[in-house]
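Write out the bound-state structure for flavin-adenine dinucleotide.
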Amino acid sequence: MDSYDLLVIGGGINGAGIARDAAGRGLKVLLCEKDDLAAHTSSASTKLIHGGLRYLEYHEFGLVRKALQEREVLLDAAPHIMWPLRFVMPHDAEQRPAWLIRCGLFLYDHLARRKRLAGSQRVRFDRHPAGAALKSRYHQGFVYSDGWVNDARLVVLNAMDAAERGASIFTRTACVAARRSGDDWICTLQNGCGQREVRARALVNAAGPWVQQLLGGVIHAPARKAIRLVKGSHIIVNKLFEHPFAYIFQNPDKRIIFAIPYEQDFTLIGTTDVDFHGDANQVAIDGDEVAYLCAMSNRYFERQITPADVVASYSGVRPLLDDEHGDASGVTRDYALELDRDGAPLLSVFGGKITTYRKLAEQVVDQLAPLLGNTRPSWTAGSHLPGGDLPAGDFDAFLAALQRDKPWLPATLAARLARAYGSSVYALLGSADSLAALGAEIQPGLYEAELRYLVDKEWATTAEDILWRRSKLRLHLPAGADAVVEAWLAAYHTSRNADSKTLLRAS
Ligand SMILES: Cc1cc2nc3c(=O)[nH]c(=O)nc-3n(C[C@H](O)[C@H](O)[C@H](O)COP(=O)(O)OP(=O)(O)OC[C@H]3O[C@@H](n4cnc5c(N)ncnc54)[C@H](O)[C@@H]3O)c2cc1C
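---
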């Protein structure tokens, strides 16, 4: 039976971040994820690295400060998938008073040190590029900074870094049983090929929406905290504006909605907050949510949309730490860690945000590592994620250098690959010196070299993994792209199996 220091259950942002931090401190780590990396909540977020302006209203100053401090740490770690974003907040007399917003933005600007992010300002829409798309009743507003993140790729990059530091990453592998035996855990893992047992000195339950289910049904350990599942959905429509600013809209119900420039051609609108009691594996937007998001967009934008304009949507379930708040949107976004030392250590993660995942992971490993005789210091605050070591963190200069090095790469492809892979684009391109050397063009702009990289280095196994989570190519490709990619994957797996049989015969 294989033995590990740490078994992390769950390949969302929290599990991947914990595996990375622990592997970097020299622990022998195994991460198991029952589906794909980021298959659930961690690919369904609004994709903001933010302090959460509205949480100030709930007096969550500690959470907002922690999140604001993390913004610049994360932006430095992977500038290809995370970057500063300016938010425009239209204002009129029906909303929170202007003095209150100014106070909130002053706090937001000053609660944590800022290096790359500009401060807030008041704007008039007759003089600001974001004004043209808005209804004429909005004359003024505010602009402030937060960050944008490609959430699913952030998870993959954490898993890649963990693997580069020695961790084993098993996707499509569920933990179906766990019991204490002497000083260890014996855990049963199950994938498409069957079951196997592994031994681990400590266990992390980072199962997100399944954290309580895992405690009750698999680990059989008590939970002293509870989570509240709150569904959030987004719609994607053809772009409603041409400039790079995002909007934050205040609703009469006091909720806020974002409208964000997305994937060059689209606008991403979300989110909702709906208490969820179903199966977290099957979560989808419903008609009321679509209507609500369209109505919110129509309240502010000149261009009106209907449900027929929605080109795609996605939904996720927030695993929120239950603070018994009456209103789903008011439940805390902070997290709690529960350490059970009744035998071999078990640490469960309740709640959290993408923005605070690195800090959360650091705190988890700070608690667990000494119990395993490891006293190495935390290390992730100043470290790049794979592909994130762009000279001076300057994405535009990096892209210009890539285009000089590989003049045969079409400009749009170079830009897409640089954004997705950062400096790892050179590993993906290998020694290719022409477009033809990247292999067949499986779909417009999608070459075999990229598909091979995603399968071999990023644990992709299905068209959904490739066209939705690791890229958003599905939004840009013709219908039927999934079937073409599935056929390529099947052929690639067959050829790889044949290669390994030939190697076995030769050895
Ligand atoms: C609509 C919405 C918008 C959001 N917007 C933002 C935002 O803009 N900014 C921000 O910072 N945060 C945001 N969040 C919050 C953030 O997305 C979540 O806090 C975060 O993704 C939770 O990550 P996780 O790793 O805990 O859970 P998950 O990503 O769900 O990961 C848990 C994983 O555990 C796996 N698992 C469960 N049981 C087992 C088992 N038995 N064996 C193996 N694997 C198992 C699951 O398959 C799953 O992949 C948003 C959330 C939602 C829903």
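---
Residues 391-506 form a domain with the Helicase, Ruva Protein; domain 3 fold (CATH 1.10.8.870).
The pocket of flavin-adenine dinucleotide is lined by residues 9-15, 32-35, 39-42, 44-48, 50, 174-175, 206-210, 214, 218, 232, 271, 316-319, 352-355 (CB under 6 Å).
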